[in-house]
Amino acid sequence: MSLFFFLLLWFYVSHALPPPRGFYLNCGSSSPTKLNEINYTPDQEFITVGNTTTIKQKDLLPILSTLRYFPDKSSRKHCYNFLVAENSKYLVRTTYYYGNFDGKNNPPVFDQIVGGTKWSVVNTTEDYAKGQSSYYEIIVGVPGKRLSVCLAKNANTVSSPFISALDVQSLENPMYNSTDLGLYKLSLIARNSFGGDGEMISYPDDQYNRLWQPFSDQKLTTLTSKSSIKPSDFWNIPPSKAFVEGFTATKGKPLELLWPPFPLPATRYYIALYFQDNRSPSPSSWRAFDVSINGVSFSRNLNVSTNGVMVYSGQWPLSDQTKITLTPAKDASMEAVINAGEVFQVIPLGGTTNIIDATALEDLLESIKEPPVDWSGDPCLPLANSWTGVTCSKEKITRVISLNLTNRGLSGSLSPTINTMTALKDLWMGKNKLTGPIPDLSPMTKLETLHLEDNQFSGAIPESLAQLPNLRTLSLKNNRFQGTIPIALLQKKGLTIQASPENMPSTNTTGQIRVANN
Ligand SMILES: *[C@@H]1O[C@H](CO)[C@@H](O)[C@H](O)[C@H]1NC(C)=O
Ligand SMILES: *[C@@H]1O[C@H](CO)[C@@H](O)[C@H](O)[C@H]1NC(C)=O
Ligand SMILES: *[C@@H]1O[C@H](CO)[C@@H](O)[C@H](O)[C@H]1NC(C)=O
Ligand SMILES: *[C@@H]1O[C@H](CO)[C@@H](O)[C@H](O)[C@H]1NC(C)=O
Ligand SMILES: *[C@@H]1O[C@H](CO)[C@@H](O)[C@H](O)[C@H]1NC(C)=O
Ligand SMILES: *[C@@H]1O[C@H](CO)[C@@H](O)[C@H](O)[C@H]1NC(C)=O
């Protein structure tokens, strides 16, 4: 996927506007900084892993001069976590400037993940070679209260993933609402203001801090608008500044625009195009035209007034180079015009983790000390980046089927709600320093193997384990259990029990009990 970059120099503005709503993190920094009137804060409140460093290069924007990187190779993902409003919509922007922070002269390539969905590969090589930073944007719906943004190694990652800045910008309900964000995410391909010659539009011109890159085309005529539109007339609330300039064509000729200016992978895209008649309202001449994309009709008889208009498609197939053609209506007296456009790749959601399983793991995370450092973000998804020790099913609503934290140096105890993970087949917690009783596991009817050996569990060995229909291995050696193994367990068919001598019935001191299948 292509990248978009901005120059290291940013223009400064001074308007007295309310600050935008969201989180703006200057990753790896220890003090706040300001960019475009937005306060960027240090990031350590939102992440517990990674190391920080400063790039020694003059004239760098403050948000690019520090970064957080993740040298831990065993970690399956490295996550930022945000508490957000329920059922809300956010624009997430990640910014990367490598700056040879690791002295390897080779920017790492890695994955970025939002919620449980793999978002994209991050490859800043080309931008870095040009002395530019890279950024990526995605629009996401958050059904619950948690939003996580994670980086992870992939097959091509040879050094530490890193991040320079992270924006989580709140959006209004009508924005991009033709896409069901409960099913899809929108990953930015291009957002351009046409005919502009240098200045990027951002906050405060765009109150949602979207970046509108200027886009010029020598073959097209640029025009400038006298009037200004009302952003709230449009569902996407575009900045009026994006309409100030636009492209037009020679009289009577169709306007042809090769945009986005690079080939695209064949898939579905959200496309929004913005138009405005730049003249004073006229009763006798109008800008009326058809819009087609790669020869397919996109919008017919568009009659563009001074108030402006947006046309969009939520799922439009594109591949390779895109050509937008505006053909003036037969009786139109004026040429066609186009002012701005946005294209997003439509990314299906990667599924969701069963909420009860996710909650049970969150409870466990609270009750054990020193859990694996990657126990953050979505516990199951993407499946290749589940929490260490957690294995999940391939269903659309995925379930935890195995939990294996053998020999991880854990202390603390097992939370009682672990028994709500009713799809779990294997629970392996051996060789740790866990204390407290074995919770009631009787609802876990799928459980086949239970390993609690070499810990400091105490209390009685629950008789209710005998009710687990599929349990075949029960390993309890070297704990502090009181009393002997209940008879019902000893008599359970097909169950192999390993226990310490002190918990054996008096007739059996071998340390192993095998109850054979008759
Ligand atoms: C990263 O930080 C950890 C913990 O603070 C430290 O042990 C480790 O040495 C650091 N790694 C590097 C490469 O600086
Ligand atoms: C990263 O991008 C560079 C420059 O476009 C390319 O040569 C390289 O193959 C990419 N790396 C990976 C792992 O995709
Ligand atoms: C999107 O928002 C607009 C403005 O609130 C509303 O009129 C429209 O019906 C919404 N569309 C969808 C698909 O929800
Ligand atoms: C465009 O709109 C104007 C004003 O509403 C109308 O008079 C005109 O007929 C329309 N032109 C076309 C081609 O639809
Ligand atoms: C759990 O992890 C241990 C240690 O890594 C391994 O020996 C064991 O086979 C694993 N159990 C399962 C069910 O995968
Ligand atoms: C005691 O252990 C032996 C083998 O170690 C086994 O054959 C026997 O069935 C056990 N006794 C009881 C009562 O489970």
TrEMBL record:
<keyword id="KW-0732">Signal</keyword>
<keyword id="KW-0433">Leucine-rich repeat</keyword>
<dbReference type="InterPro" id="IPR024788">
    <property type="entry name" value="Malectin-like_Carb-bd_dom"/>
</dbReference>
<feature type="signal peptide">
    <location>
        <begin position="1"/>
        <end position="16"/>
    </location>
</feature>
<keyword id="KW-1133">Transmembrane helix</keyword>
<dbReference type="Pfam" id="PF12819">
    <property type="entry name" value="Malectin_like"/>
</dbReference>
<keyword id="KW-0472">Membrane</keyword>
<dbReference type="InterPro" id="IPR032675">
    <property type="entry name" value="LRR_dom_sf"/>
</dbReference>
<dbReference type="InterPro" id="IPR025875">
    <property type="entry name" value="Leu-rich_rpt_4"/>
</dbReference>
<protein>
    <recommendedName>
        <fullName>Malectin-like domain-containing protein</fullName>
    </recommendedName>
</protein>
<feature type="region of interest" description="Disordered">
    <location>
        <begin position="499"/>
        <end position="518"/>
    </location>
</feature>
<keyword id="KW-0677">Repeat</keyword>
<keyword id="KW-0325">Glycoprotein</keyword>
<comment type="similarity">
    <text>Belongs to the RLP family.</text>
</comment>
<dbReference type="GO" id="GO:0016020">
    <property type="term" value="C:membrane"/>
</dbReference>
<dbReference type="Pfam" id="PF12799">
    <property type="entry name" value="LRR_4"/>
</dbReference>
<feature type="domain" description="Malectin-like">
    <location>
        <begin position="25"/>
        <end position="346"/>
    </location>
</feature>
<keyword id="KW-0812">Transmembrane</keyword>
